[in-house]
Design a protein that fits this description.
The complex is a heterodimer of chains A (260) and B (329). Chain A is of the alpha/beta class and 260 residues long. Chain A has helices at 36-52, 69-78, 96-108, 129-137, 190-196, 206-209, 246-256; strands at 2-6, 9-11, 32-34, 57-63, 82-86, 114-118, 141-145, 147-151, 154-160, 164-171, 174-178, 201-204, 223-230, 238-241. In chain A, helix 2 packs across helix 5 (190-196) and helix 3 (96-108) crosses helix 4 (129-137). With 329 residues, chain B is α/β, with parallel strands linked by helices. Chain B has two domains: 3-191, Rossmann fold, CATH 3.40.50.620; 213-328, 3-Layer(aba) Sandwich (Rossmann fold), CATH 3.40.50.1220. In chain B, the strands form three sheets. A nine-stranded mixed beta sheet of chain B has the order 9-8-7-10-6-1-4-5-11. In chain B, strands 14-13-15-16-17 form a five-stranded parallel beta sheet. In chain B, a hairpin with a 5-residue loop joins strand 7 (120-129) and strand 8 (135-141). Classes of the chains: A alpha/beta (260), B alpha/beta (329). The interface between A and B is large, with 84 and 93 residues. Strand 13 (223-230) of chain A pairs antiparallel with strand 9 of chain B, so a sheet runs across the interface.
Chain lengths: 260, 329
């Protein structure tokens, strides 16, 4: 089984995240990592490959600047077999449409049986790229999977909703996005870290993919950001230590502010 | 006047509050029209909702229907919505499409964006009419640290809007025309099927996304949500949980507040035994008033709390519950 996982390089949420002067997310000079939510997709891919056995392969695909190879490397250390990194200066400022176009083009060339993604990125967090990639590839999309089993050419997932849990089936090939409830991603082992150094990473430009530079980047975006304004941090308000009347004081505050 | 299509969220025959919020926003941008997804069997019931939509300004209610539409995931709904957009474009144009910022809403919007070659903005917290009648959106980025204003520059503006981004206000009386739009689902739409729905037990509490008060528990509960639930019931609140509490198996994932759970924006948010990690803040930072109870005086949640109690939630909450009940008589 040929499995492709889409991964994204994002600024570490624990660090100082900011916007650059051109309103894009500042990816220079900030610590970047493999988006935490993509680790679940990589882990699920490894589990599916292990269960399927045989000639199964897991290839991770990323679109991003040079530093994004960090995200590919981490995936290879976890156990993925190969990486594809689309890097091109023209991509700077690409929106979800351009990103999904480049991803879909790169994925199509790999002819996968299964495409896995995380539920969202931890930076922009639009959660729309999986649906867009599926639409462009003409693949069935099964998103927010809380479990995944594959039997022949059929996959079964469960999805946790507000009022019910749904059991969903789809034909393969398909695109599946997974939640952070689906598994516990493995940490790279020392052996995995050493093995990753020898794994192939293919670097592709837009020209290699046959995507015209005019279709990507900030100039091709279908939306425009007019302004980005830093919000003043929420000021801390009143604080009391519970001396046995903490609950009463809390309710007095709520009543005074007409909140209850 | 061009129409502003609002995709209705209807659960068990009841229109969700967010739909009325979207209609209130739609009135700023053009002539509001509602889109309801249904199958032929449910069409009459869906049409009967028209007066409720009209009360909030909808002049047209499109019944986007297809056989077994609700038994498949989003592909079919995106196809049905594209058909409605085409119909509306033939009847005066479409100024924008507004969809609730749910997981499903965003996916429908994403697919529609590819089909219509139109720009998409997700998770708007405000939408206003800008120069030239173009909708201008405000989004909240990086856990509320930045406000981003943006607009769509190509095609039909597609915008997903977060709950509580507007106060639902009824419009001056009118009635809505019901327009059925019937489509046949593609093979792709039919490839993904919902084969079973396991209903969850209803809690009787308000819906987390819509509640005006949310009371959440975290690691500090040690797995005992009884005091959190008791206080929530005393103030008529929904119950939320931090990722730590959900990962520990103490509370269902559908109640998780945070980046990978629900993003809520209630009038009052009460965080009990929650430290306030960035993952949690991303889901509640836009709440109007934040109250925190935590044993650890250094917990980052206090940095954003309007009122904080440094103390044991197992002492503070029961006392508060008793006081609220006494206050309410």
């Amino acid at each position: 089984m040929k499995i492709v996982v889409c991964v994204k390089y994002v600024p570490d949420a624990q660090g100082d995240r900011r916007f650059a002067a051109d309103h894009t997310v500042d990816r220079e000079g900030v610590d970047g990592i493999l988006s935490e939510l993509d680790e679940y997709a990589v882990e699920q891919a490894l589990q599916v490959a292990e269960a399927a056995g045989g000639e199964s392969t897991v290839t991770v695909v990323t679109v991003g600047p040079q530093a994004a190879e960090t995200a590919v490397k981490k995936s290879l250390q976890m156990g993925a077999d190969a990486g594809v990194h689309v890097v091109d200066d023209a991509l700077h400022g690409s929106d979800a449409f351009a990103t999904s176009l480049v991803l879909a083009t790169a994925i199509a060339g790999l002819e996968p049986d299964l495409v896995l993604t995380g539920m969202a990125s931890t930076d922009a967090g639009m959660s729309v790229v999986p649906a867009m990639v599926a639409a462009r590839l003409g693949l069935p999309q099964v998103t927010f999977a809380g479990s995944l089993t594959i039997d022949g050419a059929t996959l079964t997932t469960t999805r946790d909703g507000d009022t019910s849990t749904e059991v969903i089936t789809s034909t393969l090939p398909a695109l599946v996005s997974v939640t952070d409830q689906i598994n516990d991603p493995r940490y790279p082992s020392f052996k995995g870290i050493m093995a990753a150094k020898k794994k192939p990473v293919t670097t592709l430009t837009l020209a290699d993919l046959g995507v015209d530079a005019s279709q990507v980047g900030a100039g091709a975006a279908w939306t425009a950001v007019d302004a980005v304004v830093a919000r003043p941090p929420r000021a801390a308000g009143q604080r009391v230590s519970d001396d046995g009347t903490g609950g009463s004081q809390l309710v007095a505050y709520l009543v005074a502010h007409k909140l209850v | 006047m061009a129409q502003v299509l609002v995709v209705a969220e209807v659960a068990d025959g009841v229109v969700r509050k967010t739909t009325f919020e979207l209609l209130t926003i739609a009135r700023r941008l053009g002539e509001p029209a509602v889109v309801v997804f249904t199958d032929p069997a449910g069409a009459a019931e869906a049409a009967a909702l028209a007066p409720a939509f009209a009360e909030y300004g909808a002049g047209t209610v499109y019944l986007a229907q297809a056989e077994a539409l609700l038994d498949h995931l989003v592909v079919g709904k995106a196809e049905a919505l594209a058909a409605v957009v085409a119909t509306a474009q033939g009847a005066g144009g479409v100024a924008a499409v507004l969809i609730g910022s749910t997981a499903e809403g965003k996916e429908i919007a994403a697919r529609l964006a590819i089909t219509l070659e139109s720009g998409l903005i997700t998770d708007a917290v405000d939408v206003q009419e800008g120069p030239g009648g173009v909708p201008v959106t405000t989004q909240s980025a990086f856990a509320g640290g930045f406000a981003v204003t943006a607009r769509v520059t190509r095609g039909v503006p597609l915008i997903t809007v977060k709950p509580s981004s507007a106060t639902a206000e009824p419009a001056a009386g009118g009635s809505a025309t019901v327009v059925p739009v019937t489509v046949t689902l593609s093979e792709l739409a039919r490839a993904v099927r919902i084969v079973e729905r396991k209903d969850k037990e209803a809690s009787g509490r308000p819906d987390l996304s819509e509640a005006s008060i949310v009371v959440s528990g975290g690691r500090g509960t040690g797995g005992d949500f009884a005091p959190v639930e008791a206080f929530a019931d005393a103030v008529g609140a929904a119950v939320g949980a931090s990722r730590a509490a959900v990962d520990a198996g103490w509370y269902p994932h559908s109640h998780q507040v945070g980046q990978t759970g629900k993003q809520v924006s209630p009038q009052l948010y009460v965080a009990c035994g929650i430290s306030g990690a960035i993952q949690h803040r991303a889901g509640m930072q836009t709440s109007k008033t934040i109250v925190a109870i935590n044993k650890d005086a250094e917990a980052p949640i206090f940095e954003l709390a309007d009122f904080g109690v440094v103390g044991d939630l197992f002492a503070v909450l029961p006392q508060a519950t008793t006081e609220v009940k006494a206050h309410r008589g």
